[in-house]
Amino acid sequence: MNFEPGHPELPGWTHVYSGKVRDLYVPEADADGDTVLVVASDRISAYDHVLATPIPDKGRILTQLSLWWFEQLGGIDNHVVSTDVPEAVAGRAMVCRKLDMFPVECIARGYLTGSGLAEYRVSGTVCELPLPGGLVDGSRLEPAIFTPSAKAEVGEHDENITYDDMTAIVGDDIAAKLRDTTLAIYRRAEEIARSRGIILADTKVEFGTDPVTGAITLGDEVLTPDSSRFWDAATYEPGKAQPSFDKQFVRDWLTSDASGWDKASDTPPPALPEDIVAKTRARYVEAYERLTGRQFD
What we know:
alpha+beta; 8-stranded antiparallel β-sheet; 5-stranded antiparallel β-sheet; 17 strands; globular
């Protein structure tokens, strides 16, 4: 599905696609070339809906945090070519290499929570991987586990799959490379985040093949509050839901009595109140500043 959320018109660039939170452009002079302009909007999605209320500066925060993480992950090929972008989207856009994306999402889990916890409570497994008994919400998983999912069309749910399912989709060699690289990214990022008083509970990354070099390359965003679960190490307490620096704050409001919304219905979510918008923005900013040590202005 191609959203039409009022993307900016950018001289020299042709808009080709809008996803839930990003807009893609190709150069007017070389539409079939090997680069694409990726613009992060301030849109926010939850429960497979793009909400009517944007979060101010969200696009800039996610872009700048991704760029910082790409720097920390030296040795892992990524898709960023340049940050020389049109002034209208400065700070929230990257010129990137076009990739042939793999139709899977690569998830590393270092802690048990979310959909993994729900499966564990039923079967003692996560994506059919058996785990020790007696684990609770927030239990640390040592070592971290790899749990892929199959990408769904926009507006549909991604589907958790097994590693064997993944090998059937991308092949044994590529599956092993994606798994090992994902876990290496998680281990490196978890160490960095922990040194800054933040727990990286899990993260989702995506890869593609560079059609020019053939290299498996890290794409999309990386280690942001939209693709990862960050917890405050100072308040971490296994056995309960952990306050997070991601959009779980918005999800919690949407499913509360205050919103009046039934997520099982076909009705779009309501607009977010100003205080929820402000608090959500503050959590994104805090994640950026604590992780990078930089001030967001």
